[in-house]
From TrEMBL, chains A, B:
Signal peptide: none annotated. Residues 46-170 form the Nudix hydrolase domain. InterPro entries: NUDIX_hydrolase-like_dom_sf, NUDIX_hydrolase_dom, Nudix_N. SUPFAM superfamilies: Nudix (SSF55811). This is NADH pyrophosphatase. The gene is nudC. Pfam families: NUDIX, Zn_ribbon_Nudix. Keywords: Hydrolase. One of its GO terms (molecular function) is hydrolase activity.
Length: 190, 190
């Protein structure tokens, strides 16, 4: 079994002893790993989860205008990297509060999952009922606003995973039944 | 916002320059992070995904008897850490092949998700149709076997997330409808 991807090796020194790393395939493994040349610790690089919500109030969806790169000035759903010690739902609610100052009631189970293998990320969104109109731009946000389904700024969305989540949500809302969706974002070669 | 967990800090040296780490809260952040005392790189520690399958053939489910710790000699579903560069489904199929030498057709969307915040893991299982009876114990497995729903060795399962996935699967199979399930495993204080 060979290395299926070409993600750039990013580990140069051992986080346990500070010595130099070399990339080699350990015994009983089939992949190149960052292995310490002194203490032999194997350092694994694993995909990261981005968690967020599709916050809604009546027939409208809350979007955030990004105040940071990537996607400065573009619209997005509130989302960010999941932290150790929290659940997917806790992370999604936390990001919603941080970016949109909004309190939400999450709807289980998880709603939209998008794999992005070439950057080692999984983007996971929950549907989330906004408690009220008490929301505002957080530190990483220029503005927040509610959009009707036919008002979504499709040409100004920051991320493909946000587009996919919104498309699923609006299609499901239209037919009146919500199911979990899972997509894989492949690298487009053009 | 305070640190919601007590996971042990594990990063001692900077993976970029090899210098000593100190744990502090960076500007514009609210959590303790491993920050390099020389190059100022912030090192994040994120939850890891474990991916696997519930392989079935007719009315039976394939389980693997573990040849490694933790859970040596206990039964489990084929699963392991997701790798960078692969999708959730590719990781689940890879682990099924590595541990049970079995080829499966995965059923979308993802079926069982279990958050385990206190160890920073998410365990994600797909339902997976076994192509045939061509399966065998892989390197990390002592034995593989098919179990009818009333033959599952509940007292000898290696992991709670496997128990949860099997319970959901058997309940859904009994009522004849499968939906995605999401649970959070909280730390039991006894
Ligand atoms: Zn080392
Ligand atoms: Zn450094």
């Amino acid at each position: 079994m060979t290395e299926p991807h070409s993600l750039t090796p990013t580990i140069k020194f051992c986080s346990q002893c500070g010595s130099a790393i070399e990339y080699r395939i350990p015994p009983d493994d089939s992949r190149l790993r960052a292995v310490c040349t002194v203490c032999a610790t194997v350092h694994y690089d694993n995909p990261k989860c981005v968690v967020g919500t599709i916050p809604f109030l009546g027939d409208k969806i809350l979007l955030c205008k990004r105040a940071i790169e990537p996607g400065y000035g573009m619209w997005t759903l509130p989302a960010g990297f999941m932290e150790c010690g929290e659940s997917l739902a806790q992370g999604a609610a936390r990001e919603t509060f941080e970016e949109a100052c909004a309190t939400v009631d999450l709807i289980e189970p998880v709603y939209s999952l998008v794999d992005i293998p070439h950057i080692g990320q999984i983007h996971i969104f929950f549907r989330a009922q906004l408690r009220d109109h008490d929301f505002a731009a957080g530190h990483e946000t220029l503005a927040v606003a509610l959009f009707a389904h036919d008002e979504i700024p499709w040409q100004e969305l920051a991320f493909n995973s946000v587009r996919v989540a919104l498309q699923s949500f609006i299609a499901d809302a239209t037919r009146g039944e919500f199911n979990t969706h899972h997509h894989v974002r492949t690298l487009t070669v053009s």
